[in-house]
Fold this protein.
Amino acid sequence: MPLGADNINVLDTFFNLSQLVVDLLGKQTINEMWQDSTVLPNYSVGLLLSHITSSFLRVETVSESKAPDNFIEVSYEYYYGNDVLRDPDGYEDGISIVMLKESQLKVESGPDQIRRSLELSSDRLRSKLNKDVLDEFIAVVSVKNGAAKLADFMRTRITDIVVHLDDLFVTSKDLGTFDQIDDRAVDIALYVCQSIVLAHYGKTDLLRSVARQERCNFAKIVAL
C-alpha cells in the first residue's frame, strides 16, 4: 500500500497539523506580519492562515453530515476538479470560494480568536473521532449526491493544509520552515496528488514527466 493510503495515521497526522497551526497563530511574528502579502496572490499572512484554519474546521462540519441515499462516491480528482480554487478571480461557485469568503470574514478577528476557534474545534473532534468512523461516508456538498469516506475527505484537507503551509513558509522563514510539517502529512499530500495526476494524465506521461520530459505529451503536469 502506498505511503499515505492507509488510515492508520490519518487522525494523528490531522491533529499534529492542527497543533502546528495553533502554535503558529500564537507567535508574535505572525501577529506582526498579519497584514503582509504572501507568495500566494491576493492572500495576506492572516488570510492564508484563516483559510488554513477553515480547512480544519470543515472537517468538523462534514463529520456531522450523512451521505445521501444512492450517493456517488467522489474521487480525489473529481473532488478537486469541482472544489479547488485555482484562480481566485476565475469563478464564483464551489466550496473553495465559500471557504475563501469565510476566511475573509474571519481574518479581521485576528490570530488570537482564530487560534481559539481551532483549539476548540480540535478538542471536539478528538472526543468524537476514532478509527472506526474513518470509513463512514459523509456528504460532499459541492457534488450532487456526492459522498466520500471521512478518511478520504480528511486527506484532501491535509493536502490543502500542507500546500498552504508551504506557501506561508516560502513567504518568510520567520514564519516557519517546511521541515516543521509532519512527514506523514507530506506522505498523504503526495499520495493524493499522485492519485490526481494518474487519473488526469495516466501512468505513461507521469513517468515521462519525471524521467523523459522530451517524450511527455504535456508541457507540465500539475495536480492542484
The beta strands are 72-73, 137-139, 146-149. The radius of gyration is 18 Å. The first strand starts at residue 72 and ends at 73. Residues 18 and 122 are 7 Å apart (CA to CA).
